[in-house]
Structures are given as structure tokens and as C-alpha cells.
Amino acid sequence: xxxxxxxxxxxxxxxxxxxxxxxxxxxxxxxxxxxxxxxxxxxxxxxxxxxxxxxxxxxxxxxxxxxxxxxxxxxxxxxxxxxxxxxxxxxxxxxxxxxxxxxxxxxxxxxxxxxxxxxxxxxxxxxxxxxxxxxxxxxxxxxxxxxxxxxxxxxxxxxxxxxxxxxxxxxxxxxxxxxxxxxxxxxxxxxxxxxxxxxxxxxxxxxxxxxxxxxxxxxxxxxxxxxxxxxxxxxxxxxxxxxxxxxxxxxxxxxxxxxxxxxxxxxxxxxxxxxxxxxxxxxxxxxxxxxxxxxxxxxxxxxxxxxxxxxxxxxxxxxxxxxxxxxxxxxxxxxxxxxxxxxxxxxxxxxxxxxxxxxxxxxxxxxxxxxxxxxxxxxxxxxxxxxxxxxxxxxxxxxxxxxxxxxxxxxxxxxxxxxxxxxxxxxxxxxxxxxxxxxxxxxxxxxxxxxxxxxxxxxxxxxxxxxxxxxxxxxxxxxxxxxxxxxxxxxxxxxxxxxxxxxxxxxx
Length: 508
Prior knowledge:
Elements: H1 3-13, E1 22-23, E2 38-41, E3 48-53, E4 68-77, E5 85-93, E6 100-105, E7 113-120, E8 123-124, E9 128-131, E10 142-148, H2 160-167, E11 171-174, H3 201-212, H4 215-223, E12 226-228, H5 244-256, E13 275-279, E14 283-287, E15 312-314, H6 329-341, E16 346-351, E17 360-362, E18 365-369, H7 377-389, E19 394-399, E20 405-409, E21 423-426, H8 436-444, E22 452-456, E23 461-468, E24 471-479, E25 489-498, E26 505-506
Parallel strand pairs: 1-4, 10-11, 11-12, 14-16, 16-19, 19-21
Antiparallel strand pairs: 2-3, 3-6, 4-5, 4-7, 7-8, 7-9, 10-23, 13-14, 15-18, 17-18, 20-21, 20-22, 23-24, 24-25, 25-26
Helix pairs in contact: 2-4, 3-5, 6-7
């Protein structure tokens, strides 16, 4: 029996499954169904996930595809001309998952470039490129990668991705807020399909599809493997049982539009998001899920609703509860073990939100940002203990969320009890703005926070990391104007961390 016959017979045998819709092996599309592009991600040294979604009418909840299951062919090659095909197969695009396709490839060669494409009916996708990580037992000389976060369709173009492509990174880590639930006050640029925040799975699908039509984002996904995690605008704030149905809808739509694994069944309110990104003995990165299991952030009264939109508040007694967690018990244990068992030169945490402390002095009181680790101090202290206990690897933290560039040396924090001997680099946003109401309190309070070695609230962009066994160089790559689709990029600032030496040095 050939592959097509096996697929058809298997489907017929599983016809009672809720995932199975009528098979349409000869489904015809009048226009290309690959309007949302293609992508790869979740790469390891020997595996990768390839993604696409059939959506000839992308801004419809069903993508303009009838409720049929449609076989999609895929090919993997060693050259961009697709003349040296090493794998080919067929995947099923079902209406249950909005006709998305996730091909989980195993047994690939470490540190190897591959090219891939999809086809269905008479249509073929563009050709994409991906790359596996170095062998986990190897000794790679160097790596370059990018951290990015926070792209709001209504605030600017995603032109930063074109510059990422030019930087030729091995991979991109997207730290969350891949899309925004509302425009947050910007009404004179490009618009969401509606200002109503998505609640249902169809509404989340439409929002994802809107973002996936950005040509810069499509270009980057087609050429660079991504690692991704979720922040509050992607789903919901924290672990709120009253919003679990909405969160399940958000998780499903997120899976349907990302080159990821770890989502088991339609309607699930759980997503396996945490990742260990291992690059031989050079870098270990613990990529965190900072939303799915964290305790509520809204636990202290808001005495200053007009200060930083109410995001900067006094830390009430409840904040210091020993049981409060950003990560949840199981992920905390996983992170601690990862940090302490690390055998690489660099021992890195990638967190959706800022890790190190920052204090705001206002109205004679000391406040903190409720979206960061500052309101989970006991959890942060447990992580800090694991960092200090680790016998191997220079620690670093990479984060996002606050739409501005930061370089922070945790050993310089004023409060001795909250000092952590680690450097943190915070990426600005791809396009989401950082309004004066949020930016100015940071600037005004820099004198109280000597740990902040650099802060720029004005530029959007990303961080480029170039790493070898002796040095870690991070460059803040800033867009001149995100409302210009051809905006140039500039190197705003660059920093150096030397293996085994404390602190961070600014190069320019």
C-alpha cells in the first residue's frame, strides 16, 4: 500500500474520532492557501518542527476552507533549489486545528541547514530554510542568536525582522506578546480587524492571521527557526480559573499559528512551553513559561491608578508570601535542576518578564512593577539560590516585556538582600510603544537603581547576541522608525560580559 492509501485507510478507521472530518484528498483551491507563510521552530540538535496553515481567506475564522481534512505534502532538502530531497511525506490539515500543519521531524543531522516546502492541490508554498542546533555533546566555537518580544500591529511595521534576517542568526527566541489583544490607544496607523479583544478560538485565529500577514514577519519565519513562549497579551493574565475557557481558546489558536510542539488536544487548558535550548558545551538556555502557572499579580491595592497606568504599586505583605510563584512548583523544580546541572560555558535564563529588581520612589513610598519578578520575591530568591549554587557556567538572564532596552548588573542593587550576581539584558519591543506614562517613572528613578547600566525607552528593536567561550557580546539593534516599512537599523549600544568576570562592560 502506498503512503496515500495508508493515510486514507487510517482515516477511515478513525472516522469516529472528533478530530476527523471528511477526507478531501482532491480538494481544490482557486487561490494560494499559503497566505500565512511557512515557519520552522522548536529545533534541537536532531529535530525540528515545520509549520504552515491553509488559509486562502486568512481573516476568516475558518481561513476560507471547508470543513474537510486535507492531505498536504511536504519535502525536506539539503539545498535551496530543493534538488537534493532527503525527506518527503504527507500531513493532514484538519478543521479542528484550522487546517494548520505541524510536521515534527526527527533524526536530522546536528548543525545542519535544511530547506523545505509544502504543496497541496496545484499550489506550492515558498521554500523555507531551517537549521538544527549543534550536537549536544559537541564543542561549538560560537553562536549568534536574537531575543525579541512585543509586536503590536497597530503601533508599527515589523520591519525589525528584515534586519534580523540580515544579521544571519542561528535562531530567534521570541519572549512573548506575539500579538496584542487591543491597540492600546493608537488609532492613526494600521488597524486590527476589530478593537474587541479576542475571546473565542475563531477570534484568536483571526488576530493571529492578521499578524501573520505582515511580510517582514513571514520572511523571518521562512528563513530562521524560532523558539516562542507566551506572555499576557497572547492569552490571559496569570492563572485565573474564571478565564480558563478563554485561555484554552488562546492556547489552541496560538498552537495553530506557531512552529511548536507540546499541545496535545483541541480545547486543552495546558501547553508544554518550557524549553531547554542546548548548544553543545557553549550555552544552555532555560526558556521559561512565565504566565501559565504564576500566582495572581493583582493582589495589592492600587493606590496610584494614574501612576504608570496602575502598573507601579507598593508591595503589600501578601507579595512576600513564601509560596508565591511566577513559575509554579513543577517548573521551579525543573529550572533549579537545569541551572545546577548545567555543563555549558554560559548558563542562561530566558524570561518573558524582567527578573532583577527595580524600585520606583513615588509619593514618599517605594513601588514595583507588577508585571515582573519584583512581586514574586520568594520565587526569585529560590532561583537566585540555584544560580549561586551552580558549579558550572557563567549566568545570564535575557528578558523582554517592557518595550525598552536595558542592561542591568544585579550585583549593584541597593538592597543587599535582593542582590543577584547576574547580568540581565532586556530587549525592547518589535513595534509596541512605551508611552511616557510608563517610561518617565523609570527615567526619574534611575538614581535609585544603580544596577541599571543602560536604559533606552525611545527605540523599538531587538537584541543580537554573539557568543563564544570567552565572551558574550550583546548589541541593541534599534529601528529608526517602525512606521517606515523600509526603516534602517542602528546599533544603539553594545555590551560585553567576560566569562568568569563579574559585571558588564559597555563597548559603545
